Amino acid sequence: MNRKTAILGLCAALAILLGYVESLIPLFPGVYGIKLGLSNLMIVFMLYLYGMKEAFLVSMIRVLVIGFLFGNLFSILFSLAGAVGSLAVMGLTIRIKGMGVIGVSLAGGVAHNMAQMAVAIFAVSSFYLVYYLPVLMISGVITGILIGIVSKEMIRRLGPLLLKEKRKKV
Amino acid sequence: MKKKEIMLAAAILLAALLLWGILTLIKPSGGDTLRITVNNQLYGEYSLKEDQTIRIGQTNICEIKDGAVRMVKADCPDHLCMKSEAVTGEGGTIVCLPNRVILEVISSNSQAPDTVAS
């Protein structure tokens, strides 16, 4: 139990850090709303290592800490929508037979973008933003695949390590 | 990548392209609102969707018909604004300089949210 708490804390801290690192790398400067989604690495990792509950916990900690440190109430709402939307879709996708890490991450990336778009349309009450949705869907596929490839390696290499040590000591 | 993953990616890309196509088809030619400015002050905003005649102060009268705007009456001597062609798309502008009346076609609510979270 203690070991798991420590691992969850570690992953939450990493997710927050990755969120900050990401803000330093402009993927496509000038193109609005497209980002790598590095902190999704940790969420996918948690989803495979433990499950939905733990992934949700880490995701919420990340959103709240980043929100209160750097953002405002609206930006918290904005990232909350993305986090919940993507996690819900990833939780469903992971159950599909024959779907691997990349597929789950891809679905999560697209869901994240679509959820945020929905909030944005609601916030400015302008339906015209929907014209940007195809761009965000395609970018979600691309970044989702990239993040999925890295997540897959992380789960393969780090996963057994963390779980094995846990079994040995507890 | 596994077969199902490729299928998922392809499905999403296809959906995006489809959405793109549909949106392009139903997209209005940009600009759905007429903004009238008098003396650098906002006089009013009117939808281009309904035909109407708008009296601007004592000096000018403009008309919206079939989504196009034109000036029908001005009390200035040269009537340049009345001679200029009707404007439709976003950015289209008619100016009556003597009376300092500006008609411009804009999009309502074209601004993006100013905050993005990670």
Widest sheet: strand ordering of chain B? 2-1-7-6
- Say what the CATH topology of chain A is: Arp2/3 complex 21 kDa subunit ARPC3
Provide the domain count of chain A. Answer: 1
The number of strands of chain A is: 0
What is the number of beta strands of chain B? 7
Percent of residues in beta strands of chain B: 25-35%
Summed up, the domain count of chain B is 2
- Give the helix level of chain B as a range of percent: 10-25%
Sheet of most strands of chain B: 4 strands, antiparallel
- Class computed from helices, strands and strand pairing of chain B: alpha+beta
**What is the global morphology of chain A?**
globular
Biggest chain-to-chain interface with counts: A-B, 45 and 27 residues
Task: Extract low-pLDDT stretches of chain B.
Answer: 110-118
Name the assembly state: heterodimer
> What would you call the shape of chain B?
rod-shaped
In DSSP terms, counting alpha (H) and pi (I) runs of 4 or more, how many helices of chain B? 2
CATH class of chain A: Mainly Alpha
Roughly how many Å apart are the termini of chain A? Answer: 8 Å
**What is the C-alpha radius of gyration of chain A, as a whole number of Å?**
16 Å
Unreliable stretches covering 5 or more consecutive residues of chain A: none
Please name the defining characteristics of this protein.
heterodimer, A: 170 residues, mainly alpha, Arp2/3 complex 21 kDa subunit ARPC3, 79% helix, globular, B: 118 residues, alpha+beta, mini-chromosome maintenance (MCM) complex, domain 2, 2 domains, three-stranded antiparallel sheet, disordered C terminus
